[in-house]
Queue: 3 jobs
Job 1
Amino acid sequence: MKKSALVIAAFLLILMDSGCGRRGQLQEPVPRVPPAVSDFRAVQQADRLLFTWTVPSTYLNGAPLEVSSIEIRVMEAKAEEISGARARESFLKYSRPLSGQEIGRLEVSAGRAVLRLEMEKAAGKNYLFGLRTKGKKGGWSDISNLAAVRPEVLPLPPSGLRAAVGEHMISLSWKVPAAGLDGQPLKGKVFYNLYRSEGGEFRLVNDRPLTRTEFEDLNFSFGLTYRYLVRSVMADGEEYRESADSEILEVRAADVFPPAPPAELRALCGSEGVTISWLPGREKDLAGYRVYRARETEAGEEAPVLLTPENLTVPVFLDRAVEKNTGYVYSISAVDTSGNEGPAVRIRVKT
């Protein structure tokens, strides 16, 4: 009897000890998995699919995340199955890892992947793509938002890209692509996207795909070097697919355009000398004016002399070094910041 009592007492002590070590209500641990990517995107360019997304930086519990695995999954679907809630339900059930499919070769890096398509197998089919990630610790994330793509045989890139630098624009032109990637004549209408680089990455110049094989780039600055390329674009509703890049054209925007000559030149003789005035120029790169003077003699005009070694910044000049009863010819020209001097305007004066 005493032995049984001792056993019961020991059991009660164990229960009391285990209960004292617990404070508050037990919490379920937050799973150590990454959040689902929400900006997964897929676009076709030439014979490639380009995938982009933002790489998550923390787990769902807020702990720092270092992504160790990335999986892009794919499902072939009918046109009516690529949108809506049922599309996601079907994707979760029937999708397969893209790396194991025979529609192209996949190259994956952080936030970007490229699928080099087998066009004979993939063209004209509807695909849904999704992505999930995994950290060094824990499990896989949920599938990202889905991206639908229907690969098509696209045009070759345009050729013959040319440029001409004008005073107010860089005029660009190119030739229509001769055929598609399969070598067959193009059937649909071709649009174009023009890209420009100022030393860094290429950025789209036009707001919407261009319908003509020419473009006037008004947003440029003299003295800079620009690089251009153009891509063919095929439209499918609101979706646009681009060709590969054309050849890259480098353009040096050199300012060789002089300012216009001064207008409404006037001269006035007074007790202090000869005052010359004119209307100010409107050029944005106007640096100033140069004033020349030539004496008139019986043998004709002498060689003109520059009276303003430094450019005059106001449209008026007072010449005090004149003689009485002498004829002079004044020439006024405008100069820009690149050193281009425009044609001169002349006026005769008799003191």
Job 2
Amino acid sequence: MIIAQEKPTIATVTKTPVTLEAYRAIAETSQERYEYCHGEMILMPGGTATHSAIAINISVFLGFLLRDRDFRLYNSDLRLWIPEYNCGTYTDLMVVNHEPEFNGDRKDEILNPLFIVEVLSPATEAYDRGDKFRKYRSLPSFCEYLLVSQTEPYIEQYFRLAQSDRWQLQTYDQLSQIILLESLNVELPLLEIYRRVSFAAVSQIG
């Protein structure tokens, strides 16, 4: 299945005009998470306990599988810089092949993710699927994307076809299924992604 991209926006966000230098200074000390894009600082919504648990499950499992291979895993502490859009953002998880490439002399902005995971939330789901994915695709190194629901066992896997700008979609909705991550050549079971996750608790929160 070849996807066609839309351009949705983030739901209910606060945008503040700011210089890049001021944004970086705020981001270094703020306990809140901000994205930067074309002169605006955008406050990103906080996550839930379920969101955090799923992100950690994936990070721990992949970290174990890749521990002896030449990949680097980074969580949401490290900012991703997207030059084409003059944008700094955060992923729930990204994996780099070999050594990270940093933005100039900065050590907090990375340029070369291979694989990115976003755990979806109501406030950011449209953005993660639309504009954010479009920005990610401008990075030459980026070739695989996992969108993970936190309200049900449902995952969308996008991967770039070899020597092409076309992306293919594969979906998973059974806990018994296993995802073959194309870029990492490892298998990621849905049971590991959703380990100790209660969907009943999530639906009550929603």
Job 3
Amino acid sequence: MRQVVLFVLGILFVLCGTVYAAVDLEEGVNLIQNGDFEQGDFAPWTFSQSGTATGTMELDGNEAYSGKSSLKVTTTNMDGENWHVKPVQVDLSAEAGEVHTVKFWAKAEAPRIVQLCLQRNADPWDGWLWQDFNITMEWQEYVHEITMPVDLDKEMFIAFHVGQAMGVAWLDDVRYYRGGKDDEVVAEPVVQSVNPMDRLTSTWGGIKGNYR
């Protein structure tokens, strides 16, 4: 009987360990999708309006820190709650007890505050970060580190609260990853190799063509 009980407890331990396994994120790897807004649309970012506050969100092909476009967010009506107008990306993860970093580039048509938020996707909607940044009229990178207290497996969203002021703000090159500000893994540009034989064949073909 004792062996049966131990066997059952062992199975439960394995199952619980499987269900409640800790999140293990790769250090420095960006978890934001389409953070450079170069995919032709802003998905999977969404735009949230609440209360009587209103605004718009669109790609701006005339304004960008890098690449060809940025995310342009315009607040057209305020109701006293800064979070009532915001771009949002959901399904982010976090590793308990580890430092995480958010980096983004931003500018505004006039100096203003934009609030960065990290919060749970669903009830009880608990959050871990509401950080104000003073955004200027020139492109500037903003960085914030936070030690996350809980494991979150695609249970968190990132948002930029812009409902505290009327007007336009731009976002570009948004990154979020486990690790400190100096731990970011930067993707190297893809360099297409050239086969020397192909180049030689092409060159010889040109030479022959000139002497026909």
